[in-house]
Structures are given as structure tokens and as C-alpha cells.
Design goal:
By secondary structure, this protein is mainly alpha-helical. It has one domain. Helices cover about 70% and strands about 0% of the residues. It contains 7 helices and no strands. α1 runs parallel beside α3, α2 runs parallel beside α4 and α3 packs parallel to α5.
């Protein structure tokens, strides 16, 4: 829950404390309880609305998560959640960089059935 609260507060953080605290929030996405990890991950998109530095930091962190989760049990679900939160960030910010990154990450997927599933998130853009 702490990760969700901090993500919600990121927009109202003029002191940019999130830049320092982000690694801990990202670590919460690796919680041993998958539901906790997933809820933490799903709330991170709001950090990207706090400013360009925060968005850049978020995108780098998510890129690492997207690429490194390949060895995890629920990799396809994690990747799907990352693409959904990027879509939410894009819908709120209209930042074409976010869209371009997400579409590029989809192409990293080796299995066509998952690629197809991921593309559904970015349909109608």
C-alpha cells in the first residue's frame, strides 16, 4: 500500500523526493507476494506525471523490469501490466516518447501470441 500512496503523492512533490525514493518503490514490484508486487507496479505510472526527471527515471526502471522479468514466473503478466501503465501515462501526458517506447518493447517479445496480447493495449492510439 505504501508504494501506491507514494505514487499518488508524486505529483504533489515539488522537492522531488521521489527521485531519491524511486529505487525502493521499484523494489516493491519484486515483493515475494505477487499480488503486492503487482499492485505496486500498477500504481507507478503516476510518478511519470510529476515531471520530466521523474518520467525519465520511471521509463528507465520499467525498461529494466520489462527486459529482466523474462526469468520470472509471471513474466507475461508483468510485461502486460507495464504496457498498461505506459498506456495510462501516455493517455494522461500525450508524450509520444512513451508510446514509441511501449511499441518498441512489444517487439522484444519472442512469442507471437503474447505480442498479439500486448498490442491490444495500444490499439486505437
Amino acid at each position: 500500500i505504501a508504494a501506491q500512496v507514494l505514487s499518488n503523492l508524486a505529483k504533489s512533490d515539488p522537492e522531488k523526493r521521489m527521485l531519491k525514493d524511486f529505487p525502493e518503490l521499484l523494489a516493491a514490484t519484486k515483493d515475494e507476494r505477487f499480488v503486492t508486487a503487482r499492485h505496486s507496479l500498477q500504481s507507478l505510472w503516476k510518478i511519470g506525471l510529476a515531471g520530466n526527471e521523474q518520467k525519465e527515471m520511471l521509463l528507465k526502471g520499467l525498461e529494466n523490469c520489462f527486459k529482466e522479468c523474462i526469468s520470472e514466473k509471471n513474466c507475461t503478466l508483468i510485461r502486460y501490466d507495464i504496457l498498461v501503465l505506459l498506456r495510462r501515462l501516455f493517455d494522461s501526458s500525450k508524450d509520444e516518447v512513451v508510446k514509441k517506447m511501449a511499441l518498441g518493447w512489444i517487439e522484444l517479445e519472442q512469442e507471437e501470441k503474447y505480442k498479439k496480447k500486448y498490442r491490444t493495449v495500444w490499439r486505437k492510439v
